[in-house]
Amino acid sequence: MRAFAHPSVFAVRSTGVARRFPSPLPRASRARLAVAARASSEDTSRPETSREARRDVHAPRSYTREYSVDGDESYSLLDTTQGFGPPDTAMAVGSTWGGGDDERPLDASSRSRLPAAWPDRPDVVTATSTHTRHPHVVSVKLPRPVADHIKFQPRTAPPLSSTFAELRVRARRSKSEDCAFLFPKQKQTKRGKILSDPLRTSPRRTST
Amino acid sequence: MNNSTDLEPTGAVVMEVNPGPPGLAFGLVQPGDILAVMVDEWKQPSDYFVRQAPFSAIERAIFERSDKPVTLRFERYVESETESIDTREFIESHVGDRTSVHHSHFT
């Protein structure tokens, strides 16, 4: 019963529920509670809002609200150009990943001169080539470019449309009839130009 | 939502590890390991989560030439968990060198 002696802590708002179920406290305590609730600065300063609006404020994040209510208002949930949710990749605007010098040339001449040009700072290499090992997570610290150490391939396959397009190109270039049933024959000029191809997408070819 | 990223492959899997110089990851990384995160404190943002990223963007970061080291985190899925657990090596590697676990929860 001691808790009821501190009405400021247990501030009771005058709601319909409270009116329907009156407090079993003695009349003096009820009077003190009412005074405390009325004197609460929160209730007096806040403008009266509807019950729906209040529920909306405290509602969990949903797709019906344009912006999240979890404090992160930097992204919109309804902006379809950005995609749903926060940007999950670091390649968004302002990212510096991949912005440095590109060590892409992989032809024979580049490979031959690569050991001479690498490493730039051997001390850094020896200091950072340690690793940690875990049953499921492997963490390796490597000097750049990473392509010197590891070769990667895409994790997901290209979509089926790309595969279909590749088959189409292969069928056009080769003389075999393996894919002929997929793609009808096209009329060609003597120089090899294709006269009518409605599925053609390359603008360079359409201009010829 | 048909982004341009939908039309190209995503993520990166280790295809081959360079055994000789200048390769330093041989024996640590295995073919089939899935690249999850790239960490570079000099980048903005420092963590690059590459699971859903387009492969062309990942390739750009992989071929990038810089004097700053980069930490790669791989996911390795094994059939039997007991085979890959080596507690002694795990603890030693974490106690001995703190720079390798700078971004992990073990610091």
> Major sheet of chain A: size, sense and barrel closure?
2 strands, antiparallel
The total strand number of chain B stands at 5
**Helix proportion of chain A:** 25-40%
**Average pLDDT number of chain B:** 75
| β-strand amount of chain A | 5-15%
Morphology call of chain A: elongated
Query: What's the Cα radius of gyration of chain B?
Result: 16 Å
What's the N-to-C terminus distance of chain A?
93 Å
- Outline type of chain B: globular
Strand content of chain B: 15-25%
- From N to C, what is the helix and strand string of chain A? HHHHEHHEEEHH
What's the SSE pattern of chain B?
A: EEEHEEHH
Secondary structure class of chain A reads mainly alpha
> How many strand elements of chain A?
4
Q: What ranges of chain A have pLDDT less than 50 throughout 5 or more consecutive residues? A: 1-20, 33-46, 51-56, 59-73, 113-135, 200-208
Helices and strands in order:
The complex is a heterodimer of chains A (208) and B (107).
Chain A: H1 16-20, H2 27-39, H3 41-45, H4 51-57, E1 101-102, H5 108-117, H6 122-128, E2 131-132, E3 137-142, E4 150-154, H7 160-173, H8 203-207
Antiparallel strand pairs in A: 2-3
Chain B: E1 12-17, E2 34-39, E3 47-49, H1 55-62, E4 64-65, E5 70-75, H2 81-84, H3 87-96
Antiparallel strand pairs in B: 2-3, 2-5
